[in-house]
Write a structure and sequence with these properties.
Blueprint (H helix, E strand, L loop, with lengths): L1 H12 L5 H9 L4 H10 L20 H11 L1 H16 L5 E5 L3 E7 L3 H4 L9 E5 L3 E5 L1 H34 L1 H27 L5 E3 L4 E6 L2 H9 L8 E4 L7 E6 L6 H16 L8 E5 L4 E4 L12 H15 L5 E5 L7 H19 L2 E5 L15 E11 L2 E10 L7 H8 L3 H19 L29 H7 L8 H18 L10 E4 L29 H9 L6 E4 L13 E5 L11 E5 L19 H19 L1
Parallel strand pairs: 5-9, 8-12, 8-13, 10-11, 11-12
Antiparallel strand pairs: 1-2, 2-4, 3-4, 6-7, 6-9, 13-14, 15-16, 17-18
């Protein structure tokens, strides 16, 4: 790494670099002597702890090399001495052995005892012990070697510690220069990492000045964007933000559904301001950032129980710090103020906080909230603009577009998000009922809804399994067709087979006979049955969701003045008999006395969001609910 680093430094030395990088590169110079010392003294991969030893390179200290040789190669030293003593005594069977009593000793057979104890050998070999067949000797040299071998491990470690102290003293002598080099290396590491990130992620160079501008085009959250890419999911949706103001506050009041991306939008703009002011490129197509004196953030929910602070108390403490410290050059992001208390208390606090930010702090701010009443302040406070995160509804579900637009949201889609989270269907259905009742009371100006008005104590019907669809011969034929393998003639024959199967079977999507039109007898006259045909798309009224039998029947029955009505067989759903048929009066230009009624099988597993209030007293709520579900199914079938 060091060699690569200094090669890079050498290449950059003669280039025209920014002053910060040139100064950092210069601070990495002047350590040649210290590097030479450490290169010679240390091995390439030293151990983690100095107490383990083994970090001094071989050849650096002769005394250490000798101690390591005795520690690691003691057998070789003893074998060399044995050979020397055997040649000196002229006894080929001479051996050097070891036991726990005598340590190392020289052993020969009793045959050579007289020779070993006679001059001149007795001056070298000292008699120690005689056994029945062996005679044992020692020498001064052997005793010294034995001591050195036994102590070689500890001696080597002590020598390494002494050398380690010498090296640390040399490093500490250069401590000021090393600290400067460390800071320079950190700066180079940061700059190169940011440059690599900017090039790889398509960031742009921001304009930073002393104005109060805050204009971002195509801003993105760098962390969320990368996470989406790694998961192979959807592309991050870039958004613009403009909090520029020459004088006074500039506040965006952001409303919209849960999970739509409000918090992401707040944080990405705070990150862009932070990156721009630290000298980095930013994740945006274009950015003009005026100097930000302080960056305040009040997001998320947490408590501090050890200090006796609830979640709401922590939220208020953080909000108080912002309102007491933010100035006109501060950037403030506030996510959900006042949500931890009663509705009116929280709304009042959020309202007053927004006014204080605008009138007193005069800061640039992003304020996300679900209190839609606050959007009225945009018409009263000059520096407040409404913004919302766009969504679309499709078949009762919410699709998040993640696009921030000017304007205000009228609701937060909390029940739909709860459904996405996996709340039980009965809980979601009850939530819809309560929400409808509360909204109805608010629209009608009835004040607070009484507890008796809400269906809190009504038993929710248990969810029923959906009826299984019977196999369709047409679908079976389709499954057996491989379009890429068909010739034109075979394709035509397959089309005839499908048409014949449909004509013979005449089965609908749920396995019963297909719907058919019959010409009912108009009021005041008689006439022959008309042709059986499906109405066109223009014959159906708008697909509103008004929960009334009249609205539901007009959705399916309100034809042109041809007096045609749907006659739906009970066999549409297997297992439904005549007793399970509910009638919904068309309520159109047909007279109820003429018998023009829409008769349909009644489902027992009606989805909770399809319930309706019957406008005909003789029809039960459950029956009209099932009528509504079938009517919706038929309308979708005809539109498809």
């Amino acid at each position: 790494f060091r060699r690569v680093l200094f090669r890079s430094v050498d290449r950059c030395r003669d280039q025209d670099l920014p002053q910060l990088m040139s100064a950092a590169i210069a601070d990495l110079q002047g350590f040649d002597d210290l590097l030479s010392l450490l290169d010679a003294a240390l091995i390439a991969d030293p151990p983690l702890l100095a107490r383990d030893g083994g970090f001094i390179a071989a050849g650096y200290d002769p005394e250490l090399d000798e101690a390591r040789t005795l520690r690691d190669e003691g057998r070789g030293v003893i074998a060399a001495m044995q050979q020397k003593y055997a040649e000196q005594a002229g006894v080929a069977s001479l051996k050097i052995k070891h036991n726990n009593v005598l340590g190392y000793f020289i052993e020969t057979t009793a045959t050579h005892a007289d020779k070993m104890m006679s001059p001149p050998l007795n001056e070298t070999f000292i008699h120690r012990q005689t056994t029945a067949n062996q005679v044992r000797f020692t020498t001064v040299e052997l005793s010294e070697i034995e001591t050195r071998i036994l102590n070689a491990g500890n001696l080597a470690l002590e020598i390494e510690k002494r050398l380690y102290k010498r090296l640390t003293d040399a490093i500490l002598a250069s401590a000021p220069q090393l600290n400067t080099a460390a800071r320079a290396l950190a700066e180079l590491d940061l700059l190169t990492a940011l440059a690599d990130l900017a090039r790889g992620e398509g960031w742009t160079r921001p304009q930073v000045d002393n104005s109060r501008a805050f204009h971002v085009e195509g801003g993105r959250h760098p962390v969320v964007e990368q996470a989406l890419r790694q998961q192979g999911g959807e592309t991050f949706v870039a958004n613009d933000c403009d909090l520029s103001a020459d004088d006074g506050a500039a506040v965006w009041l952001l409303t919209g559904p849960n999970m739509a991306g409000k918090s992401t939008f707040l944080r990405q703009n705070a990150l862009i301001a932070l990156l721009a002011q630290m000298g980095s490129y930013v994740p945006a197509e274009r950015a003009h950032i005026g100097i930000v004196s302080q960056l305040f953030s009040r997001v998320g929910a947490s408590d501090d129980l050890a200090r006796g602070r609830s979640t709401f108390m922590v939220e208020m403490v953080e909000t108080a710090a912002i309102l007491n410290q933010a100035d006109d050059r501060a950037l403030v992001i506030l996510d959900e103020i006042g949500r931890g208390t009663a509705t009116y208390d929280g709304l009042s606090i959020a309202w007053a906080t927004l006014e204080h930010l605008h009138e007193v702090n005069r800061s640039r701010a992003l304020f996300a909230t679900h209190y839609h009443e606050l959007t009225q302040l945009a018409a009263k406070l000059e520096g407040v603009d409404n913004a919302t995160v766009a969504v679309k509804e499709w078949e009762g579900e919410v699709i998040f577009l993640h696009e921030v637009r000017k304007g205000a949201a009228d609701r937060s889609y909390g029940v739909q998000v709860a459904q996405l989270a996996g709340l039980p269907a009965s809980v979601v259905a009850r939530a819809r009922d309560v929400l409808d009742m509360l909204e109805k009371g608010s629209r009608e100006g009835g004040g607070k809804v009484q507890i008796d008005d809400l269906p809190l104590f009504a038993a929710a019907p248990p969810p029923q399994p959906k009826p299984s669809a019977a196999p369709s011969p047409v679908l079976e034929l389709l499954d057996g067709i491989h379009p890429d393998d068909l010739s034109p003639r075979e394709a035509l024959e397959a089309l005839y087979k499908l048409k014949e199967a449909a004509r013979k079977n005449k089965r609908g999507p749920l396995g019963g006979p297909l719907l058919h039109l019959s010409q009912n007898t108009p009021a005041g006259g008689a006439g022959p049955p008309g042709p059986q045909r499906l109405p066109g798309r223009d014959q159906l009224s708008g697909v509103d969701d008004t929960p009334t039998c009249a609205a539901r029947s007009s959705r399916s029955c309100n034809m042109k003045p041809s007096a045609e009505t749907w006659m739906i067989s009970p066999a549409l759903v297997p297992g439904t008999g005549a007793s399970n048929i509910a009638s919904c009066s068309c309520g159109s230009n047909l007279s109820p006395t003429s018998g023009e009624t829409m008769r349909m099988p009644c489902f027992s597993n009606t989805p909770s969001n399809e319930r309706m209030v019957s406008s005909t007293p003789s029809i039960s709520a459950a029956a009209t609910s099932r009528c509504s579900s079938v009517a919706d199914s038929m309308a979708r079938f005809m539109l498809s």
